[in-house]
Fold these 2 entries.
Entry 1:
Amino acid sequence: MADAIPEPGRGRAPPRPVLPAVLVAMASAAGGPALAATPPDGAAVFGLVGLELGFLAALALIALACLFVPLSRALGLGTVIGYLSAGVVAGAALSISFTRDPDQLLHFAEFGVVLFLFVIGLEFRPARLWEMRGTIFGRGLAQVATCGILLTGAGLLAGLDWRVALILGLGLALSSTALVMRGIDESGERNSPFGQTAIAVLLFEDLAIVPFLLLVTLLAPSGGEASLAGDARAVAIGIGAIAVLIAVGRYALDPIFRVVARTRTPELMTAAALGVVVFAALVMASAGLSYAMGAFIAGVMLAESSFRHEVEADIEPFRGLFMGLFFVAVGLSLDLGAVAEYWLTILLAVPVTVTLKALGAYVVNRAFGTPHPVALRIAFAMGQHGEFGFVLFAAASSAMILPGDVSSVAVAIVTLSMALSSQSDRAYRLVMGRKAPETLDEDFSDADGSVLVIGFGRVGQLVAQPLIAEGIAVTLLDHDADRIREARQFDQRVHFGDGTRPEVLQAAGAARARAIVIATDDPATTLRIARIVRRRFANAALTVRAHDRIHAVRLAGEGVPTDAIMRETLLSALSLGATTLRALGYPEDEAAEVVDRVRRRDAARLDEQVAAARDRTERDAIVSAIAPEPLDRD
């Protein structure tokens, strides 16, 4: 593996790989005239010059993103792969300003990560952040150190110089804040044990880039000239910058936003929010610290502000746009020549480094007492390498620690690991396997209610309330063990059992019940239970929750009376319509009459559809033809 990476001075201009014709054709359609050779300075392309050529380049990237992101989502690969693919194709097939200097675009697009950290900071009040200090500086330090040691050791075994191996190991030990946080946000797990732990470690990694960059200075050929006083001065400047941000956030931000809010100018509020982010990033940059950390501190300072939600709503569109641009820039910055020349090295290195990093994350989190499923989830989510690796490798290359070819290969490893990370959640589910449904031992000796409610979810709970309030004996049945435990906390007896099994219904008292309510949320399950009840327990009055109109027609086809079928959105939607009419000035009785007229018309149409679908052999064809119909004005 060591022989595949040339020593300094042995590098040669790598050949540009030949892309498949289909990618070139797609890029041609999206990029248009931007595919032409780069014009000499001052030359025009189809009459476009200067800034207009910049707009053309931006249009080409937008077109590629609009092409590849939907395609990637359709293939189940996620949006990140789409953005990365758009950047790779742009870098390989287009000759535009961004492809000539992708690092500039990447540096600009890092503003997306900055905005992302600002939004995250808005969710963390200072008191809550203080409570997490042990996780941030304890587990975060342990995970980065462990992963760094494992990856540095792999570099030494590959025959790399110890300085090169150390920088590569530390750079690859950092995860992608953008990718991990995007996954946490999409799954809504920001407040889960997995989300909290991952965020804490990511925050430490954002802080760790500062000493890592200082280490590059010390390891550089001229690093011996660095003095202890200079290092102490740098640390003091960093602490001072953080103190300035905290002071401004505590005493100035809320008054500023209060003044801006009084103008009642939405665009000014948006500009103020962006200005706060830029100010915080510049303060930290002037101290040699991370832009993203400055934005995070600004967000934390605004977390207790009454303007927090409005600021977050103003920032959100820019955050999404810049995050997409960031991933496009990552794809653009990929050196396809280095990938083509050292493809075997990269092909071997990516799974090895990702596995080592995931192993380190898993071991550390298990050592801190994290349950196996959560620790494994963290390992899969944080196994990829991150965007701060680009920063560290660029600094090490400029300091002549990393040879140019080694740096290109390292960037390619980081980029490809980020591309593969979109499948980490799928890989986690594959390893964990499908969780077997939990079962509970059940005793139905006290199931003597005159009403049997099957399904104790959001609808079943509401159905049971008026019955219980009237003192009617109700037997509640559900197959979700967690829901049953939650009900026990409120002294509510819910029996565990599968309502699609006749023997369970028999044990739950269906044969003795005067009324049976089917309130399950899965349409297919509801149909199966309705068939059993109609066939075996016809003595009970039956009422059923229907998912939608089509489901109602199918239930009626099983013999359930239409007046016993309640579509779950019908009454609430009509009630909302009546409320809207009253808000428009309609009198109470007139609004009620309009809604009643619509209800009667809907019921008549449903009766027609149920009658047409009586024949079981033709029911599927008739039901599939049901579609919304226009409503004419009376």
Note: The beta strands are 451-454, 474-478, 495-496, 515-518, 541-546, 565-567.
Entry 2:
Amino acid sequence: MALIKKIRQRTGLAIGVIAVGLIFFLVGGDILGPNSMILGSSRTTVGEIAGEKISYDEYVQKIEETKLTFQQNTGRNPTENELFSIREQAWQALIVEKVFATQYEELGLMVSDAELVDMVQGKNIVAELRRELTNPETGEFDRQQLVAFLQSLENADPQQQRFWTQQEKLFADSRLRIKYDNMLATSEYATKAEGRLQHKMANTIADVSHVHIPYYAVSDSLVKVSESDLKSYMGRNRERFKVTQSRDLEYIRFTLAPSAEDSAAVEREINSLTAELKETESDSVFVIRNSESPSPFRTVYPGDPLPENLTANVEDPQVGEVYGPYLTNRSSYVSYKITDRFDGEPRMRASHILLGTEGMDEAAKSQVRARAQEVLDEVNSTGNFEAAAMQHGQDATAQRGGDLGWFAKDDFIEEFADVVFATRSAGVINKLVETEYGYHIIKVTELPKSLTYKLAVLELELVASDITRNDVFRNADYFAANSNNAKSFRENAERENYQVSRANGVGPSARSLNNMSGAREVIRWAFNDASVGDVSSVFELDDAYVVALLVGRTEEGTADLNDASTRDQVLSEVRNEKKAAYIMDKIKGLETLEAMKEVFPEASIGSTPDLRLNASVIPGVGFAPKAVGAIFGMKDTGQLSKPIQEDIGVIVAQLNSLTPAPEIADFTRYQNEVTGNASQRTSYMIMMAMEDLAEVKDYRYRFF
């Protein structure tokens, strides 16, 4: 009876527990998921832009829009790596919408209807359309495809029409951003004084001798570092020790390497398929059906190389012949069949230096032409076209020495193409070529070639079989099940002879651990689910299983002196400060570099006869900007500098001679250098500044 009484007393509690259990069973995903209303709005916020919270739903909608564009353009779903890129594009698009839209409106920037028409069907088709609408035979942009597509839109289904409307908006948004960036980039201007300083920095030369006394020349035992020293140093350098959210992990990687049986099976299959490829007459259909190559049937255009595996084994591949299989460095077996070889449209290779004149009047164009002639004369004099292109070029090719790659005549504007294809020898063309974009200085690097191949590629990946994967998973799962804390994790790893790797300072948005890619789920676990000392379950990567241990966590703010890595850094820097003071005291009053080396035998004496004012590195010593500044601050030949504390040790320099920059009348070249360097950084710096001003906060790591 007493038992029945107790049951009756607890009936209400039992019913309540069952009710709660049923609720969690039915809607637990919504309650505890990222859209939970119970857990608060912070669980539905993926970030903040300019004070406005960005909801999970809004971000996902933007991802879906971007993903739809990708699917329409490629005809397939994105891979995991591509999906990461899509998420980044969606996030950047939201930043632009929230931050840049206000800027565009205030500046009156817009894309007119006429401009948009020109971008999608006029003379200046946007690059995105040019890439997607290509002739499969030539690989070049096919205007007829574009015309046919636009004509078909009127009768297309609503989804296709919505897609095109979205594409036009993306094109317009992209053009607005380009206008904004270009407006600020072209507003860069260097004064004559800045040009004079740039000239002085580049051409003032010192001949200097120096002694470098490294910190290891002083034993750690000779300097005492107290706890108050460490705290004081952190207090003085608080800004340097600002930290972002991060995690430290140890992990074991169970590699999914193919077994000997897996390799033998793939070899048998590739040999069988290679034999069939030799006999088939439908080469393209056969490799499309059987090959795992991303481009199984391809055209190798004039100037483009045949695959390295083929050329390394065959000197003169013949039409109809099959070569291989060969083992590649991508862990695959590959065979090739030359299905055709013919003279196609000629292609050649050249480089150029463009000095732009778009939007200029005739007087300004005349000045640019005179400047272009100076550059051409400089190139003819020095013979270093690539250096001149990097210094003077005003388009994207400047960063690669002006190289335009291989191209056909129709790929370039007529005035440019006519001159280049009329050339009969490689080298610099000794005249300026004017187009609507400006003045071009051109160097022909390869004369026209026309030899074209059609190539069938039969490739099979060498990967672990299901049997091998299951064996590896069982080992990883057994390890994880028997490792429930840091102690057992390390003990079990040592007993099984597993290699434990460590990744420190992993950020919340990271996608890899050290050089191990595809580890996003491991990192999400470390930030969202794990406490220090927790061991994960088994994570599956593309080529491995991983079991991880969370060993440390750092939250955003000022670094904690109790954190091991922070303490080690502060201790090292404080110790070096004290060693610098010790070194300076020991060499005080010494008048020669040799005498200083006698005190510290580990020191090194060297000389630099051509140290320039714009240098930050002393050859044979290392990064030493303060020492460089001190050297050029000396006036008298033979003068010794005061001891200079650098991160790499203490440096004392002796000035042997100082050659000032020669006087010149025109600083235009150096003004252009300053302007060009600033312009190249503009787009990136704008984005960073806008994100900073908008106080962008990114919490996406909680969800993705």
Note: The radius of gyration is 33 Å.
